[in-house]
Amino acid sequence: MAAQRAYTTHPLVLRRVTVRRVHEVTPRMRRVVLGGEDLAAFTRDGTAHPAFAAPGFDDHIKLILAADGNVRDALPAQLPHGIEWTPAEHRLTRDYTPRRVDHRAGELHLDFVVHGEGPAEAWSASAREGDELWFVGPKSSLRLPERLDWILLVGDETALPAIGRFLDERPLDAPAHILVTVSDAAARQDLTLRDGDTIRWVVAEPGDAAALDAAVRALPSPAGEGFAWAAAESRALLPVRRYLQRERKLPKDRVNITGYWHREEAAAPDAPGPADAAQGPAEIPSPLPWLVARAALQLGVVDAVADTPGLSAEALAARLGVSGPGIGVLLPLLAAYDVVVGADRGAGLRLGPAGEELLDDHEREEYTGHEAELLLALAHLAPALRDGTSPWRLASGATLHDTVTLDADRYGELVEECEQLVFLLTGLTADPLWEDVGTCLLTGPGSASVVAALDDAGRRPRLRIAEEATPAGVLRGHVTAPDRIDWTAGPADVAVAAKALAHRTDEEGVQLLTRLAGWTGTAVLVEASRPDGLSPHAAEAALHAYTATGSPLRDSAAIAALAQRSGWSVDRTIALGWGTEATVLRRA
Asked: What is the Cα gyration radius of the chain?
């Protein structure tokens, strides 16, 4: 049987609450107690929404603020099942952990670190009884393993609401070992401890990676099966993650580390300010730093320097098997971009701030994973536009679909990219089309998310797999019900193609839909039809899609055209949120 999924999903609902009272927990923590009818089940614009639920100790809700003070214009659109983040120039969002949820009193407690900066902290400082606040979420709750001998909770002051809630509500009986870094001893809080628990407070500057790393390494290593949870400044957590996974050898499913905030590096005294920058034209950035970082990861420079700080350039070259003058060409550039430091002092190499960020798996995927390969294909953008084909095809000599069909690792990356899809599928699983479905045919890298969403909705049709590019092991490792899956294609009541078109050309999309028409009379296409309005990279979405397939993001009209070419007609479209739609097709 597959392992238990790590998260439980929740419907995404936009809620309005008002301030009931404010008080200081410590000189460094302010608590705002909120209440309102939207915390219970309610109806808005004819749509019923469930009561607020945040059962996990580290759940996150997204507060919605506005730089110009006009919060109403910054609000997302509420869908029957989900949220659509429409573009809003002045929207500001910040994630916060509910410190306490009191359903009987209809109250939600939020704790804000008092640090004198940031829109959320500024809002809390001026909050008065009756002030309104809008929020969305949580979208999911962490599921802890059922059997644990201990749990480690590590964090800075921003993690105290989650740690305090864990100790108050105690989702498991295992002893808790707690480490908290605070900027001042006055930030310490009285926490609910039990026999067997331990707690250590360390005074350190916010975001001090060295202090946090040293404190974690100084903790004893309990025996038995454990789970490590950590939340703090994102960069400060990188050595902690590396230590827990590489040295303590905790499995990935026993470690949950989240960057709660990101420290901005101070500009150099002679660096141009906004006024200076406005005097000249905007400068198009060079790709050189990206290519140098990619080379450093591919050669193993970052890992080698992290594992053995103080290496000389010669020792590094020998360890990596790099001959000739190559390492001497690379190191000055790595130093210039803060990947390494010490290259010009003869004191041995250490990782710089940029190098530390590259220790994060998600960060390095931007330079070495599927996303990086798509970016490199853009070197062929001009001839692709002339020829009406995809840059990927010109770069590799094959379509992206052909590439991933033959490469299980690359297809696995597509599956991982689709994991967030599970949070958007409530609208699909709630649709009446499932009422008489006994068998569902699945295709596309989002298939695992569809299975998870069906499980969450209590839908349990027999499943068939129709994706020739889906190695059974890739999908099986992501689903909870391998016992009800038939790994061969065949007739079904409905077919769901989840992000199956996102790596296919139009012709390949028509071929897929034609094949599905031979197995079922109803099909559902789950695809991103427009950019996510909350993403800072929304403007790049169409270009990424074109690079992969030769087509921009396919909107409703483009989907209808592909359907018509393959013998289908569009029955209806279900808005799922975040620019994603489910298009229900009927065989013509």
From this structure: 26
Q: How far apart are CA 331 and CA 348, in angstroms?
A: 12
Cβ-contact 257, 230 below 8 angstroms: yes
pTM given for the model: 0.86
Place of tokens 């197995």: 519
Q: Cβ contacts of residue 541 below 8 Å, gap of 6+?
A: 528, 530, 531, 532, 535, 553, 579
DSSP secondary structure, 296-335, as one string: HHHHTHHHHHHHSTTB-HHHHHHHHT--TTHHHHHHHHHH
Between 17-26, 119-128, 190-199, 315-324, the lowest mean confidence (pLDDT) is in: 315-324
The residues, any chain, with a CB within 8 Å of residue 133's CB and separated by 6 or more, are: 16, 17, 18, 19, 34, 63, 123, 127
CA gap 117, 206 in Å, rounded: 13
Tally of CB atoms within 10 A around 361: 11
Q: Which residues contact 249 (CB under 8 A, 6 or more apart)?
A: none
Q: What is the DSSP string of 124-160?
A: HHH--TT-EEEEE---EEEPPPS--SEEEEEE-GGGH
pLDDT digits (tens, 9 = 90+) for 198-239: 999 999 999 999 999 999 999 988 989 999 999 999 889 988
Please check whether residue 119 is in contact with residue 94, taking contact to mean a CB–CB distance below 8 angstroms: yes
Q: What is the C-alpha to C-alpha distance for residues 237 and 215, in angstroms, rounded to an integer?
A: 12
Sheet with 255-261: strands ordered across: 198-203, 176-182, 150-155, 226-233, 255-261
* Contacts of 239 by beta carbon, 8 Å cutoff, 6+ apart: 209, 212, 213, 356, 359
536-563 pLDDT per residue, tens = 777 788 899 999 999 989 999 999 999 9
Provide the token pair at 159.
Answer: 């993690």
Whether 137 contacts 62, CB under 8 Å: yes
Distance of CA 570 to the CA centre of its chain: 32
Task: Give the pair of three-digit tokens for residue 419.
Answer: 């994991």
Residue 205 identity: E
Identify the three-state secondary structure at position 196.
Answer: coil
Tokens representing 295? Answer: 């080379």
> Closest by alpha carbon to 454, among 496, 407, 516?
496
The dihedral built from the CA positions of residue 461, 518, 553 and 373, taken in this order, carries a sign that is: positive
Please name the residue ranges forming H helices in 170-237: 209-217
CB atoms within 10 A of CB 82: 25
Alpha helical stretches, state H, 380-504: 381-387, 391-396, 400-405, 408-417, 426-429, 447-456, 472-476
Strand partners, 179: 154, 200
